[in-house]
Amino acid sequence: MDILVKPEVQTVYARPQSLTDVSMHYCPGCTHGIAHRLIAEVMDEMEIRQQTVGVAPVGCSVFAYNYFNCDFVEAAHGRAPAMATGIKRVLPNRIVFTYQGDGDLASIGMGEIMHAAGRGENITVVFINNAIYGMTGGQMAPTTLPGQKTTSSPEGRDVESMGFPLHMSEILAKMDGASFVARRSLHDPKNIRLAKKAIRTAFEAQRRGLGFSMVELLSTCPTNWGITPIEALSWLEQHMLPVYPLEDFKVSSALAGLKF
C-alpha cells in the first residue's frame, strides 16, 4: 500500500510583528494596507518597534493606531508634524514618524509640514498621495490632477480657476532642514519593493540624526475615483506618474551607499 507523504510546508510570508492581527477598515483596493505593511516590515528589520512612536492625524488613517503594534498617538487634523516635533524633542531617543494623507499634509497641515522641514526636525513623514480627499467624500485635494473629476470639481480640476496641484516632495526637498525626500508608488510589486527601501532610508536618516525625512507614496482610492481596484492601479500608473515622477529629490551625503 502506498504511503501518502505530506509535502513540506514552507512559510514564505508572515505578518510583521509590528502589525496587530486585526482586520483593517480601509476600502477594498486601497493601498493604505500595503503602506502599513511596508512600515511594519522596516520596523521589524531595524528592530526599533519598542522605541517607535507613530502619529496619525484625521483622515482615512485616523484608526492607524489599531494596526501598528507600537506606541501611537492621535493628532488634530494637519497637526501631526507639530505633535511629532514635541514627542521627539522630549524623547530624542525614540523613532517618531507621522502618517499623513494629501489633504491633511498639503492643505490644513501645510504650515506644519513646511516649518517642521525648515527647522530640520529629526522626524520621518510617510505621505500618502491619492490625489483626492478620501474620508470626507472625494473632494478635490491639493494634489488632485488637472482635469481630474471629484465631488467638488465635477467637471474636472480647472487650473485657471482652481490652481495647479502641489508637488510636495519637490517643495520640501528645497528646505535646508530636509535630509531625505523621495517619491515612490504602490501600484505594482517592483515599485512596492522600491517604496520599502525608501521608507528604510528615511528611518535610517532619523536614526543617524540627519534631520527631516519624508517618503511620498502614490496610492489608490478606487472608491472615490469611481473605478475598480484593478482599474485604479492602471489609472495611477497612466495618470499620476506623469504628473508625479518617482525619484529621490534629496539625499544627504551621509546616506550615500546604503544597501538593504
Distance between the termini: 51 Å
Q: Order of SSEs, N→C?
A: HEEHEHHEHHEHEHHE
Rg, rounded, reads 19 Å
Number of helices: 9
Outline the low-pLDDT stretches. Answer: none
What is the residue-mean pLDDT, rounded to a whole number? 95
What would you say the CATH architecture is? Answer: 3-Layer(aba) Sandwich
Keywords, separated by commas or semicolons:
260 residues; single chain; alpha/beta
Textual characterization of the structure:
This protein is of the alpha/beta class and 260 residues long. It has one domain: 3-Layer(aba) Sandwich (Rossmann fold), CATH 3.40.50. It is 35% helix and 16% strand. It contains nine helices and seven strands. It has helices at 32-46, 80-90, 102-108, 110-119, 159-162, 168-173, 189-207, 222-225, 229-243, and strands at residues 52-56, 71-74, 95-101, 124-129, 178-185, 212-218, 248-251. A seven-stranded mixed beta sheet has the order 2-1-3-4-6-5-7, sandwiched between helices. Helix 1 (32-46) crosses helix 7 and helix 3 (102-108) packs across helix 4 (110-119). The longest helix has 19 residues, at 189-207. The protein is globular, with a radius of gyration of 19 Å. The model has no long low-confidence stretch (mean pLDDT 95).
